[in-house]
Design brief:
The chain is of the alpha/beta class and 602 residues long. Helix content is 53%, strand content 12%. The chain binds adenosine-5'-diphosphate and magnesium ion (MG).
Length: 602
Amino acid sequence: MAVAVCVLTAAVSLAFGLSGQRLMTLFCVNVCAVLAFQVFSGNTGVVSFGHTAFMGVGAYVSAWLTMPAAIQRTALPNLPSWLAGHELPFLLAILAVLAAGLLLGMLSGMPIARLGGASASIATLGFLIIVYSILAASRDFTRGNQTFYGVPRVTDVVMALSFACLFVIVARLFKDSSLGLMTRATRDNETAAVSVGVNPRRMRYAAWVLSGGMAAVAGALYGHMLGAFTPKDFYFHLAFTYVAMLIVGGMNTVTGAVAGVGLVMFIQELLRNFERGFDIGPLHVPEIFGLPIVGVSLAMLFVLWWRPAGLMGRNEFAHGLFGRFDSGNGTVASPRRAAASSDALRVDRAVKSFAGLTAVDDVSFDVEQGKVTGLIGPNGAGKSTLVNAMTCLYPLNSGRIAIGETRIDALAPHQVAGAGISRTFQNIRLFSGLTVAENVAVAALANGSGLAEAKTIAREELDFVGLGDAAEQPADGLAYGARRRLEIARALATRPRYLLLDEPAAGMNPEETADLAGRLKGLPETRGLGLMLIDHDLKFIMSLCDRVVVLNRGRLLANDRPDAVQRDPSVIEAYTGTRASRAPDGTRTEENGNTTTEELSR
Ligand code: ADP
Ligand code: MG
């Protein structure tokens, strides 16, 4: 990608001389800025408008440090002496700019990283307004809304190109780093990311700080290209242009960001020629002020309609040239989280209610190590609610969840995987923007594996669930049954001591279900884990489980061996809505025998 940027820059500079050079300098500076946006927005999914604030700060900081002392004395007579008269070389000033950007990122990131989605976007807008207001009000430092001049114009095409290449590399490395991968998992499905142990706030914070540092450097380059500027130059107009570039190209990829810069600048340059009015044959079209921005807006709307993920979608330029994900050949250093003890996962008098409805009502049972515990009950019985409570997604109203004697119900949701509990979701939650292998690798990364080890774990677990051949495919292209198996592989990659599967066979055909049962059967023994299995398919449950817990309307109805549960009249009644009555010969008849009852009795 960096080579492509170099070739393009060289070609245009040579073909169009000085004006070509100026254009490509701006192109490279824009690439830097948009990549700073991309590092945050592309990986977290939060559209930011705030990064031009970092650029403004970067521009002023580098200007204070580099400008000639003589000009500084007249332009900024009240600049404090510790800041005045440094006349540093630009590259040295860049280090200070980077530090300032990172520091500002650390401070502003504290509130912003707590938010996700649209509220985070609004917060970045607020951040932009705050920083702009401060810059405009700090007259002694910035000359307020008057032009700040005398900044050495050191950003030439070579300088800008060097930084653009550096930024391309940093953005790509970050995206494919373990941090970047976990951040993108958060972007695709925050709840699922949390369930494998990723802390979304920390991911967004890291991306915000890094991208803030990058944006500040981009701002310094921009300032030293302009030579004179005001705080307005780093306000809405610029932010909008960069967001448009990101949307047009596609913010999920570095390639998209660079392509977006090229395309939008092309549109701008083209329309600028027509802005002063033009003739079509005898017809004279008068001056249209702001034609380029209108064109860019239309291009953005068109792309949003035509290809919402941007022109490049998810395709990364030359992605296949370097280590593809399935080539994980590291060795697994960390042993499987062997059952540290034979402690059971205990649910103890758990109560969870939603405004008047008690979904889980005083339920107690154990999920034992090395065994399969089935959890059954009619729809709405509270099974999924119980799983959510056991993984701390829902706080309990009363009661406790513990491993042995260690309480875990006060943990934050992202700490549950670290405590040894992993789960799947009834409504499948995959990281749709990642490949199959990456989906699994994220879970290993979040639990202390390095990249090479995570790839190896991903390969192992995918082979275990029979998805080894699909490793490089996008996860959202999988068939329904395969998605469920992928979720199981992902849950296993956290090396759990307890695995909670919420209706893993739902939507599978009989062959798939049998196949899954075969794979799950030996799991508790070979991995030393306690398996809790929720399902509606009673044959599936009865064939696999050592114990079966029955819930009905939130209450525990039975907790026994499968054969005993099958014979329990109260279970049959609750499960089928029919009253089982004893025939004189001692066998059971149902007043309204439906297939479920038959299955249960079988
Ligand atoms: P099951 O998984 O056994 O089919 P659930 O645990 O999903 O049942 O639901 C149990 C009850 O709790 C249902 O009545 C459901 O409507 C309610 N419930 C579950 N989750 C929520 C929630 N987040 N907010 C409100 N009510 C909920
Ligand atoms: Mg459910």
